Amino acid sequence: MSYEREAAKRDIAKDDRIRPLAGLKGVKPPAPDWFEWAIGCASEEAHVDVAGAAIRYSAWGQRGAPGLLFIHGGRAHRNWWRPFAPFFSESYRVAAFDMSGMGDSDWRDKYDLDCAIDEIFAVVEAAGLNAGGRPILVGHSFGGWMTLAAVERSGERLGGAVVIDSPISKPDPDEGYTIARSRSADDRENEQTRESRVYATIEEPIERFRFLPNQPCEELYLVDYIARAGLTDEPRSGQKGWTWKFDPRHGTNFDIHFERDLFLAARCPLAFLYGEKSAFAQGEGFEAQQEALKGRAPFIVMPGAHHHLMMESPTGFITMLRTLLACWPVRVGF
Predict the structure, then answer these.
(1) Residues 35-41, mean pLDDT to the nearest whole number
(2) What are the pLDDT digits (tens) for 222-262?
(3) What is residue 5's predicted lDDT score, i.e. its pLDDT?
(4) In this structure, are residues 227 and 147 in contact, taking their beta carbons and an 8 Å threshold?
(5) Which of 101, 174, 188, 323 has the smallest count of CB within 10 Å of its CB?
(6) What DSSP assignment string belongs to 184-238?
(7) Cα–Cα distance between 34 and 317 in angstroms, integer?
(8) CB count, 10 Å around CB of 89?
């Protein structure tokens, strides 16, 4: 069972679902100047075809600068990164993309890990992120798993990889480790026929929006922004109304398995960021990760933050990541 489903079960059992925008009746919350500036920054909008699917991406900054690619989490989309990407565009050629089955990218009949990695490197190439040398990947949650998968397959093509609050089990040095397994045939059949709920008005899904795993967030302008950007008024069912853009089948039919202990045998520099209050910043896997990374990679825990740490402390996240990138990876031979 995937960590998202486990988290959902815990949420139901606790009956403590936090819906940050409930009660606002769809009214946009006021936003600070830095946010308005960031989402107002012009971006290049384009797509690249990968195995028959159009993969949409946004890019900022000059081609030829070092590349930086942001990878969103499960059932999210590239606009989770739009409030942050412009703050890196003076020093980097920055891009963020929608994985197939999410955001504005095409859906697939079937999803698999190799194709997900192909999408990453296709966007790197199309957006010109490799024109200034080997690019750095930054992936959150499910996107962190995709980042590590890219490192395992082709880490020599990367300048570094930053993994943000991705739950990682304790690896076996000989067998590697499995992060998630595909669901049973019966579950997959049910998913094949499942359709996303359609709402009569945009206000209803916005008010119902919540983070998974469950967590608070007081930066309501950010929550409102990513919720709106994740909705479409063109449901695939043909009904009239609003629905979430993601394919509910995504992630149900492929395994995520790493053949090696990437903490010890990565093909590029690694760095890890966690929220102190995240459910994934604890347990055997987390402790093993901390122990293995000593002297090998930066391991940073943001005080007071949960899993979606960039949404809770956005300017703190920007500062933390900019500081990390300013002094890492360590370069020699100047």
Answers:
(1) 98
(2) 999 999 999 999 999 899 999 999 999 887 667 888 887 78
(3) 44
(4) no
(5) 174
(6) PHHHHHHHHH-----BSSSHHHHHH---SS------HHHHHHHHHHTEES--TT-
(7) 13
(8) 18
- For residue 63, the 8-state DSSP code is B
How far is the C-alpha of 298 from the C-alpha of 195, rounded, in Å? 41
Q: How far apart are CA 298 and CA 14, in angstroms?
A: 34
The Cα–Cα gap between 74 and 5 comes to 12
Contact 95/120 with Cβ under 8 angstroms? no
Residue 80, CA distances (Å) to 41, 74, 155, 230, 255 in order: 15, 11, 25, 9, 25
Per-residue pLDDT at 331: 61
* pLDDT-wise least confident of 97-101, 188-192, 272-276: 188-192
Residues near 114 by beta carbon (within 8 Å), at least 6 away in sequence? 153
Instruction: At 136, list the tokens.
Output: 């750095």
Helices (H), the chain: 3-14, 33-40, 113-126, 142-154, 185-193, 203-208, 220-229, 262-265, 284-293, 309-312, 314-327
- d(CA 6, CA 8) in angstroms, rounded, equals 5
Exposed/middle/buried for 273, CB within 10 Å: 0-12, 13-18, 19+?
buried
The mean predicted confidence, pLDDT, of the chain is 90
Under 8 Å between Cβ of 165 and 175: no
pLDDT score for 183: 62
Please give the pLDDT value at position 217.
98
- Domains assigned to the chain: 3-326 (3.40.50.1820)
Q: Tell me what the mean pLDDT of segment 186-195 comes to.
A: 56
For residue 115, is pLDDT > 90? yes
Question: CB-based contacts of 22: which residues, under 8 Å, 6+ apart?
Answer: 207, 208
